[in-house]
UniProtKB/TrEMBL annotation, chains A, B:
Gene Ontology cellular-component terms listed: cytoplasm
Record's catalysed reaction(s): alpha-D-glucose 6-phosphate = beta-D-fructose 6-phosphate
Molecular function via GO: glucose-6-phosphate isomerase activity; iron ion binding
Chief location category: cytoplasm
Protein name: Glucose-6-phosphate isomerase
Enzyme Commission number(s): 5.3.1.9
Subunit note: Homodimer.
Subcellular locations according to the entry: Cytoplasm
Organism the protein comes from: Paracoccus kondratievae
Pfam annotation, one family: GPI
Pathway: Carbohydrate degradation; glycolysis; D-glyceraldehyde 3-phosphate and glycerone phosphate from D-glucose: step 2/4
Entry keywords, A to Z: Cytoplasm, Gluconeogenesis, Glycolysis, Iron, Isomerase, Metal-binding
Domain of life where this protein originates: Bacteria
Family annotation (InterPro entries): G6P_isomerase_archaea/bacteria, G6P_isomerase_prok, RmlC-like_jellyroll, RmlC_Cupin_sf
């Protein structure tokens, strides 16, 4: 992205505790603290009525039978939505409503995914190549990661199966 | 775009009156009322705090020494901004401030263009291929095309020169 205002990376060590298979996590981390995803954004302001836009790129990979994924969050102003738009690769948006309903939106190039107000959201790279998406959200949204930490993650886990992926219960969820 | 909620096209006849060279316009129109640009959008609502996202594609072309371009508008809620992000091709965003200052942002793949609150904006395809951009703006922005019509267009025209483009005064501007 040219004309962006910021960039950050998340490494494997930043994602400690997210995955069920802690042995596989430790083994992969021992190979090196690789970048799992990075975000380049354009953030004109954080005022109501303004908009933040960015590009996120996530590497392909697995930890046990789980795919590389983002930590997941809800917006600090929880009624603020978000729009994702696929650019490259194949991913999922894992969405969880305030009353615990899970929805999965498959995202490929040119796919729109709308994150409705109040829904927790996380992206998952289920492909063999980088997952690249653009996103935009109201500039006053903010992010709250604590809701995920307090509940032991999201209600379900996306896990790899022979022909793709399926959902299982997250046994750490409280 | 998959999962979009709407689509529209603008044809040459919809752009009557925008161009200085009316003879060239009439000659091109006589060849057929071609689609000049189309927009596919995702519009979850028109409420404050929501966001509209879309993809716009504009054909390459010229009318006299002017490039194919959009009509231009200001937002009905004029303090609402917009973000464009280049996908394919080469274009310009022509921006005009409330006191008549013109700014031009060149847009190629992965270029961000921010349209600040209160600025009139129009996109121009200066290349030989389709110009494709994504855009997003606050869902309550609205569009006002009358400001352009009342003033005889924008203050400047983008015109082709040997090595690219330049700005000239729009003699219809009042
Ligand atoms: Mn978000
Ligand atoms: Mn606009």
């Amino acid at each position: 992205m040219s004309n962006g205002t910021g960039h950050y990376e998340k490494r494997l060590s930043d994602l400690a505790g997210l995955y069920a298979d802690q042995t596989a996590f430790a083994a992969l981390l021992a190979e090196g603290d690789r970048v799992v995803y990075d975000v380049t954004e354009f953030r004109p302001s954080e005022k109501a009525g303004d908009v933040i836009f960015g590009v996120t790129r996530m590497s392909p990979g697995r930890i046990g039978d789980e795919f590389f994924l983002t930590r997941g969050h809800i917006h600090a102003k929880s009624d603020r939505p978000e729009i994702y738009y696929g650019q490259k690769g194949t991913g999922l948006m894992q969405l969880e409503s305030p009353d615990g309903e899970t929805r999965i939106v498959e995202i490929g190039p040119q796919t729109i995914c709308y994150v409705p107000p109040y829904w927790i959201h996380r992206s998952v790279n289920i492909g063999d190549e980088d997952l690249v998406m653009v996103f935009c959200y109201p500039a006053d949204s903010g992010q709250d990661y604590g809701i995920i930490e307090r509940s032991g993650g999201m209600r379900h886990r996306v896990v790899a199966v022979d022909d793709g992926w399926t959902l299982t219960d997250n046994t750490s969820y409280v």
